[in-house]
Each structure stands twice: as C-alpha cells, then as structure tokens.
Amino acid sequence: MPDEDYRTASHRIWEEMAAGWEDHRRRVWDASHPVGKWMVDALDPQPGETLLELAAGVGDTGFAAASRLGAEGRLITTDFAQAMVDAARRRAEELGVPNAEFRTLDAERMDLGDGSIDGVLCRWGYMLMADPGVALAETRRVLGDGGRVALSVWGNPEQNPWASIPARALLEQTGADPPDPFAPGIFAMASEERTRGLLGAARLEPQRVENVEMAWRFESFADYWHHLTNVKGAIAMVVRSLPQSEQDALGEEIEGRLQPYAEGGGYRLPGMCLNVLAT
Q: pTM for this one?
C-alpha cells in the first residue's frame, strides 16, 4: 500500500479507536506501567525541560513524566488522531496535570522548530507509522543538544500471544497472505537489529536497549474480546467488518487458543516490549 494510502487508513483507524482507548485507559496504563516507568526513568526528565510525546494515545506515559518538569517545564502531548488528543486532554484533567499542552501532530511531518525539544517519548508508535525512518529523522531534527528519545515497540510475536494469537487465527480463517514483517504494524520493529538500523540511519545512537515484560489481565473471554475489538487498531477494524457468524467462529477459535493463559476465571496474557533510550 502506498504510504499516503496507508496514512489515510491508519488515521481513520485511530480516530475510531480513540473511544475504546479512553474507555480502557486504566487497564492499558495498569498493564503498561512497567514499560512507561522504564521509559520515563531512562529519559530522566529535568525541571524546566520541554518534552514531546508522540503517538500519545490518551497520554499516560507523558503524564508520568510531567511531574518531573516542575512549574517551568512543559509537556507537549500529541497524536495524529484528533479524537486521541481530545481523550488525552480529558485524561490530563482527570489526573490534574497542569503543565501539558495538546496538539494534533503527525510524527513524520512535525510542525516544530529544529532543536526545540529536550526529550521525546513514544510508546508503541514508531512501528505503526508509514515510514518510521522518516519519523525518527524528524525526532532527531527537533531534539536539541543533549536531547534524547525513549521509545517502546513490541517484541517478537511469540513473546506477545495477546496479539499474535488473534492475528494468526484471523489469517487462517480469512485465507489472507501473511503480512510483510517490515510493513507498518505491531511487530514491524520487533527485530532489535532493524530498530538499531533505523535509529542509526536517523543519526540517533542507542544508549540502552532492553526487553521489558508486562502482562494484560482480563476477567473473562468477553472482556478480552471487547478489548480486542475496541482498542487493538487494525485487527479490531478487520474483526468488526466480518459477518457476525464469522466473528463468532473466530471468537471460538481464539478462546480455545487462549486456554494456556487462563487464570482465575479470566486470562493473564504476557507481553514483551523492546525499549530503547537513544541520543
């Protein structure tokens, strides 16, 4: 798919997913807290700095950093979906974050000055962008002297059954061809080698590269299914487009494959992220 076609489709997906992300905001932050904490600690925000969060969703990672910036510091919370930015603004009000501003911003085409940012956070964003190399080059451009970026992308499919199980079941049911592993998508930057290569091409040097474990918890299969079809981006849109009979059959297949992760009437589904601090 040409980049512009992908960008248009991706924008539509995340505008539609924003309501689900807002509805599931506490679950997402509870699950991803180890990932976000690693990112904020690695970035080490200092009082008075200006931080930028890209593809922020409802913004919790950036808000976790905002308290370290002091009264003179500033957090710029951005997403390219306006509905996500609106949800992040409401989340900031809920949390009482006083030093955040909100912008609709495409990470591949930032309307920000050269060297105007001290630190960048991006959780689960770069791998979904049409051209992550361009986005990382833009990140490098806006970073000032001593600037740094903390990012997180998803690790290998085998380490993330919460996503790989439904994706494989869907491919088998629909007969679709497996996607290009480097095409934009949830596992597009799972390879440490590729991620390091993209960073290097953007003149960003990794200082720390670590795997960070997390887990998703669901009270029941219905709970998992609601999350899958209201939060999980492109796969959610595909599942929702299927006839009800095919959705039902897919649900039964996925439920069977989730049994190894059953716990206390629900599920505990492990996840693994590749986290990077680069300068």
A: 0.96
228-249 exposure pattern, b = at least 16 Cβ within 10 A, e = fewer: bbbbbbbbbebbeeeeeeebee
170/82 Cα distance (integer angstroms): 29
Grouping H, G, I as helix, E, B as strand and the rest as coil, residue 46 is coil
223's enclosing H/E stretch is: helix 221-231
CA triple 222-166-151, angle to 5 deg:
105
53 and 77 in contact (C-beta within 8 Å)? yes
Strands (E), 65-185: 74-79, 100-104, 117-123, 143-154
Contact at 8 Å (CB) between 122 and 151? Answer: yes
- pLDDT tens column, 50-102: 999 999 999 999 999 999 999 999 999 999 999 999 999 999 999 999 999 99
Q: Are strands 50-53 and 143-154 parallel, antiparallel or unpaired?
A: unpaired
Confidence of residue 178 (pLDDT cuts 50, 70, 90): confident
167 three-state secondary structure: helix
Spatial neighbors of 195 by CB under 8 A, at least 6 apart, are: 153, 189, 209, 274, 276
- Of 43, 49, 108, residue with least CA distance to 76: 49
DSSP code at position 127 = G
Tokens of 29: 């932050």
Phi-psi region of 146 (alpha: psi -120 to 50; beta: other; left: phi over 0): left
